[in-house]
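Thread: quick sanity check before group meeting

JM: Hey all, I'm pulling together slides for Thursday and realized we never actually wrote out the predicted structure for the chain we discussed last week. Dropping the sequence here so it's in one place. If anyone has concerns about the input, flag it before I start.
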Amino acid sequence: MLDPFNTGTNFLITKVTVVLYLFSTLFNFESFYSVKNIGKYVYPVFALFILLTFMNFMNKSSVYPIFFNVPMFLDMLILLTVLNHAKIEPQLLLKCLYVFAFGSIVLTIMYLLGIQTGFGLQNRVTIFGNNQNEVGLKLCISILILISIIQENRLKFGKFRFLFYAVIPFMFMFLIGTASRVAFISLFFGVIIFYLLHKQFFAPKKIFIILLLTITLFPVLYVYLNKSLLTERLGDFITKGDLSSRDVVWSSILKIIPQNFLWGQGETGCLRSITLLLGYPSSPHSVILEILCYTGIIGLILFLIFFVRIIICIKRSFQEDKEFLPLILIFPVLGMILSGQILGAKIVWVLFAYMISPFVSRSYYKFGNRVRNQTKIVRYKPVSTIIR
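JM (edit): ok, ran it. Output follows.
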């Protein structure tokens, strides 16, 4: 826990930044908290949050009395305010993702210097005591962002951007150290899809360069990965179906869900039931099962409506604008949905906002142009028409 003032509070920079950002938006409340042009994206998740809060309240107990999920509430506010901000500044979220990736570079330097790093269960690397899968997935997201910045240059960094190539191998080493299987698999598919679909890499000269680099680096990667804990964990998953006890938790969750299939038991009721079955509280480690357990089939339908609309935005971004970054970022997001949790993960909701933002800002400017054109027509009406 990062607590430089010994207050007992976890002073993560992201938490402080989010609170300060949301506080600053209050001074322009009408602009940042409007649902115009974004209602179809925010209404389903807001309804999900209201349902979750209600079910938490109905199932609270002396052991689990907290029914208001503050992290998820902040995520909803982030989604709403950032989407409205993106209407005004379309490249805002891409710049935010770059800052996020730069933050991961700083963490990688700290890892190399041994600052605030440690080893958890199975000797897996962590930093600031965070969960290894969480660290690994954030590194995966950051590497994909940097690859997009280098190759597509949408932020117009010029040749300076190629310096990031020198940092990515160290970030990859850090990711391997976390031994996060979901992060490694997400990165693998993200990179493969990016280079397979990017037409500029099919020029004969570039194909030759890529093949040469692959042949050169493969032996190094093979030797490095062969000695890593990640390879051992991937091998256990493939040969033994090892899921790090997730299967035990999932089987318990599947016993709890039928108890209230329609509305769920809330987070409070679910934690109480899991504790009775396992003897200890545990996260469901699957967003689908988590939402089913917390809010039933109604909540799952609301989430799926939201997520399908995200997928449609990604498809349109790729087809209409040749945007590769939303497409490859969906892999770590899917990794979190299938084997982790996203209801309190702020970076995931920033990614969702980024995936939606092109169509929000586009609708905003189309509406603005239409209003301006109508104003011009009224302003320059002939005098004779006005008299009539």
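AS: nice. Residues 287-321 form the longest helix (35 residues). Residues 37-387 form one domain.
JM: adding both to the slides.
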